[in-house]
Amino acid sequence: MNKEHFRASAAATVAVLAAAGLTACGSSSQTSSGQAEQPVSGGAFVKAISADPGHLVPMTGVSLAAREMVGYAYEALVYATPDGRFVPWLATKWEQSGKKITYTLHDGITCSDGKPFTAETAANNINYHADPKKATFYHGPQVNEGVTAEAEGNTLTITSETDDPFLLANTGTIEMVCQAGLDDPDSLKNATNGTGLYALSGSTPGSTYTYTKRSGYKWGPNGVTSETKGLPDSLEIRVITDETTAANLLLSGEINAAVVTGADRQRLDAAGLKTVGVRNPVGEMLFNERAERPTSDPLVRQALVTALDRKAIGDVVSDGSAMDSKSLVVKNPLLCVAGGPKWTLPATDPAKAASLLDEAGWKLGEGGKRYKDGEPLTIKFIYDAATATHAPAAELVQQTWNKLGVTTELSANDANAWSEQLFQTFDWDTGFVQIAPGGPVTVSTFFAGATPDKGGNNFMFVDNPEYEALVKQASTASPETTCDLWQQAEAKLIERTDVFPLADNELRTYLSGVRLEQPNFVMPTTIRMLG
C-alpha cells in the first residue's frame, strides 16, 4: 500500500499473462546537444522514498517502503520482467508438473556474509514461509503449510498438497534470505544478508540508507555481473517526505529517481525527464465491516458509493489523470486482468443513495442529518496524509455525503496511524485505503482470509460467502479456467460493495541521469548510470 498497502504480496503472478504496458523504460537519454547518453560505471544512484521503512527484516516487513528496501539486497529464483515474463535469476531453469516444481540453481552463489547460498538454503526459505507460526509476508498468498521444499545438490524441489496453477509465480518470486538471517531474523532489522548485487553498508533511520556493490557477483538476470557497464558503486536511498523538495533535487541532478504524484509533475514533464510507472489504485475505497460500524450494512455501503460523482472525485484524486479500474490486481504482471473486468460500477444517483439509506433505517432528522435509534449516521473517512491528492478528494467526498445527511469526519493518517487503525483499533469506516496485489490469490487474503485478531490480513472483516465459494473453486482450477473464476469472484466483491475502485492512475517514478527497470520497485541489476 502507499503506506496503506499493508501485507500486499509483491508477486503472486504467472508467466502466461503479459503486463498491460504500464512500465516504460527508454533505451537511452539525450543530452542538451542531442547526443545519446551512454552507461557510465561508478558513482552513487540516489533515490528518494517518502517514508522510512522501519525495520528491514524481509520476512515480515509490510509497508511499501520496507518492501522496496528488501528488493535492493535480496533476490528471487526468477525475475518477473516489466513485460510479464519470468527469466532466470538465482535459478537457471525450472520444470513444473502438476503439484511439483523443480528449480536448478546457479553454481557459486554467495551471500553478503561470504557464505554459500545453496539449494538447501532456498528450501529452508520456502519451508520457513510455509510455517504459519512464522506469520511471514509470503505466508498465505504465496505459500502455506501445504507446501514443502527439499534440496539435492543444486536442485530445489517444491511440492504443494493441492493443485496450484500459480506455483511458479508463488514460489519463484520469494526474496531469499541467507541462512544466518533465517536463523536470527532480528539480525536483519538494521542489516542485510542476501545474495543481492548490493548490501546495506550504512543507515540513518529517517534519513539515509546506503548499499554498496559487491564484487564477484555473477548470477544476475540477463547475464548481469558486478562488472556490467553502467552499474553504480552504491545506492543511496534518502527519506524525503516533501514532493516539491524531491522534484527540485531531480531537476538539479542531486538525486536520480523519485516518485512524484502531485502538481510538481508538470515541471518535471516540461523538463523532459523520463519516467517508469506502475498502475496505482489511488482512489480505491475499502470499508470496515465490523458489526459495530455503520458500514457493516451493505445498504449503507451501496448508498455511500452511489452518491459519489466518480468523474469529479476521480479527476481530483488522480490529479487529472484518472483511469478506469480494470481489476483489483494492479502489480506486475497483472495476473488474471486480461479480458476483465466482469463487474460494473454503479451510476451516480444521489436520489437512489438517499432511498437506500432510508431503507437501511437512517432517516433524515433535525438539521438535515440522518439518525437511527437516536444516533447520527457518522462516517469516519481515512486517507493518506502523504498522498497530495487524497485530502482535496476526501473533502469532495465529505461535501457529497454531508448533503446526503451523513456526518463525515475526515482523518489524515501517517504510516503509524495506518497500522494502528487498520490492524489494532479498527477505528475507521471507509476511505482511500488501497491494496496493490500482483494476483487474485493475494486479493483473497484480504477479502476471504482471517481477520487481524486471528493473525490474518482481512482488516475489513469482510464475510462474502459467494466470493469465498468462487475463491475455493479458482484456487485449484486448471490454468485454462482459473482466471475466469477469479474474475467472477472479484465481481462479487463489487456487487456487495466490499470495495469500490473509484479511479486508478499511473504512479510515476521520475528519472534523472539514469535508466532502469521497475516491474514493481526499482530493480537494482537494471540500474545504468548515464553520462
From TrEMBL:
Family membership: Belongs to the bacterial solute-binding protein 5 family.
InterPro entries linked: Peptide/Ni-bd, SBP_5, SBP_5_dom
Superkingdom of origin: Bacteria
Signal sequence coordinates: 1-24
Record-annotated Solute-binding protein family domain positions: 86-440
Record SUPFAM superfamilies: Periplasmic binding protein-like II
Name this protein carries in UniProt: Peptide/nickel transport system substrate-binding protein
The organism of origin for this protein: Thermocatellispora tengchongensis
GO molecular function, one term: peptide transmembrane transporter activity
Record's keyword terms, sorted: Signal, Transport
PANTHER family to which the protein is assigned, alphabetical: OLIGOPEPTIDE-BINDING PROTEIN APPA (PTHR30290:SF9), PERIPLASMIC BINDING COMPONENT OF ABC TRANSPORTER (PTHR30290)
Pfam families in the cross-refs: SBP_bac_5
CDD domains: PBP2_NikA_DppA_OppA_like
Chain ranges passing through the membrane: none
CC per GO annotation: ATP-binding cassette (ABC) transporter complex; periplasmic space
Gene Ontology biological-process entries: peptide transport
